[in-house]
Design goal:
single chain, mainly beta, Porin, eight-stranded antiparallel beta barrel, two-stranded antiparallel ribbon, 10 strands, OMP/PagP_B-barrel, Outer membrane protein beta-barrel domain-containing protein, signal
C-alpha cells in the first residue's frame, strides 16, 4: 500500500510540475518536538506544492515533499538504544490565506504522511504555517506533525512525530 501511495504522489506532483503556473518548491530545517525528540535530534526536507487561486487572497492546492529525521541515542525503560534515521512523504491538501494589507500569510497542509522506514507506520499529517511572502518566494515557520505507530521490542508504540520547522519556498513561473 505504501508503494502505491508513494507512486501516486510522485505521479500527481510530476504531472503538476509541467504546468508550473502555481508551482512552488523549497526546503525546510527543524527541531523535532514531542515523541520525535526522543528518537531524532534534527530534521530537514524538501517541499513542493501546486496552488490554485480560489478566491481573493485564498489559494488551495496539493502538497508533497520529504521530511527526514536524523536518528539519535535514546533511553527506553532503562535501556539505551540508537535510533535509525526515518522519514515521511506527505500527501496533502494545502490551503493558504494571504493578508491583503501586509506581506504575511497563514497556511495549513492536511493529509497523510507515508513512512519510508520499516517498523514505523504512516499517519495523519498536519502542518500549520505562518510566513512572510514576496513576489517570488516565501519564508515560513511551521509545526509539522505526523501521528504514527512504531514497532519496538515486541510493542507497538503510538507516537506523534512533530517538528518546528523554518522553511523557504520559491514560486516557479
Amino acid at each position: 500500500m505504501k508503494k502505491i501511495l508513494l507512486l501516486g504522489a510522485f505521479a500527481l506532483f510530476g504531472g503538476l510540475a509541467q504546468a508550473q503556473e502555481g508551482l512552488k518548491l523549497g526546503g525546510h530545517i527543524g527541531i523535532p518536538v514531542g515523541d520525535a525528540s526522543r528518537y531524532s535530534s534534527f530534521t530537514f526536507g524538501v517541499d513542493g506544492a501546486y496552488m490554485w487561486n480560489i478566491a481573493k487572497n485564498f489559494d488551495l492546492g496539493v502538497a508533497t515533499g520529504y521530511s527526514h529525521f536524523v536518528g539519535k541515542a535514546y533511553e527506553f525503560k532503562g535501556d539505551r538504544y540508537k535510533s535509525d534515521d526515518f522519514g515521511f512523504i506527505p500527501v496533502a491538501v494545502s490551503g493558504k490565506y494571504s493578508f491583503a494589507k501586509a506581506p504575511i500569510f497563514v497556511a495549513l497542509d492536511l493529509g497523510y504522511g507515508i513512512s519510508v522506514k520499516d517498523g514505523v507506520d504512516g499517519g495523519l499529517y498536519a502542518q500549520p504555517k505562518f510566513g512572510y511572502q514576496r513576489k517570488n518566494m516565501e519564508l515560513y515557520v511551521g509545526y509539522q506533525t505526523i501521528g504514527s505507530r512504531r514497532d519496538f521490542e515486541r510493542e507497538r508504540i503510538d507516537n506523534n512525530f512533530g517538528a518546528i520547522n523554518f522553511g523557504i519556498n520559491f514560486f516557479l513561473k
